[in-house]
Amino acid sequence: MMAVRMSFKCIARLALWVALTSAALGQQKSESQPNNGPPQQRPAENTAVRSYPGGEMAGSRVVRTRTESGGREVISESVEVPGASGRLETAKKTTTETVAVGSGAVRVQRDVFANGPQGPLTLIETSVADQQKFPDGTSRTTTNTWAPDSGGRLTQSSREVTETKSLGADVRQTQTTRYLPTINEPLMESERVLKTERRVRPDLVQTDSQRNIRDANGQWQTTETRNQEVRTVGRGEVVEEETVRIANSDGKLTVSEKTVTNRSTKNGSDQVVTESYSPYTPGLAQPGNALALTQRTRVTTTPTANGGSQTITETEAPDAAVLNGQVRVVARTVETVRQIRPDVWETRRQTFVLDGSGRLVLTTDDKEETKAR
Asked: Could you tell me the pTM of the whole model?
């Protein structure tokens, strides 16, 4: 789908950047506070440009716009990459339309276009999500997705139904059911995820989820469970712990990952430290299924003048080249948000990673402009 001169590595890196860019758009601040950062939920336009100081590939760009009129909102996102001529060309475009269709009901249609064998910007996927909220507090979202078959005709590729309901004052349950095509049926129930959230105490929330899939014999098998606890341990400090268990070759659930996240505020700065543990860690000798630290991420956000901010993200990991190697910083990202004109904010994001000599060097330089209107 990308230009023919792009390598698989470049495409993968671009895909990762698009994901990070989309996430960054959702982390910006509310437009209702013009002097406290860029608009968060409803920016009129956002343009993100990526450059590679090392010169190994040309730059790229993502343009995201939003229009709203008469209860209808349309968000368009275009990914531009170097074409055969070396100039930026639109390689992928996504259009999301949200319309209120009645009391407590919303319809969201998402169309994805990309360059492919059938020509430039051909429809490769379309989905329609119908969201409903009922008087008893229950909500249901049904998402149907279609994709072209080998002949270019749209055929349904999946359906997903998510229902959320209250089981009591402090208990909420969400069930997601996924339907996929089979040889004998157009759509068949293939996967279920049940999540239950409980507020045990004012300072403790527990969430348990279970994923079941249908095996080759049509029987339901539990393939994964997640158990999470969120505790408030002090003023401005929250600790989250999540344990993931997956089924091994014998069908027995065993711990595959544990994540501990500490969120705190101190001296005006917000800090999030996330540690991931696993029994499968390259370069570490671990007895049995003992858990060892695989990665630590430290994110510190500090407000700056005129409502801006600076966020420094450091990723630490054991040295895989040395048995039981020391944990060290392997990547650093510095993000600076500042207002450059009325209703216009700039976000600059520089990423540094280790080179062959063990030094942190600048690998990507992203710049975004967000317009409030």
From this structure: 0.79
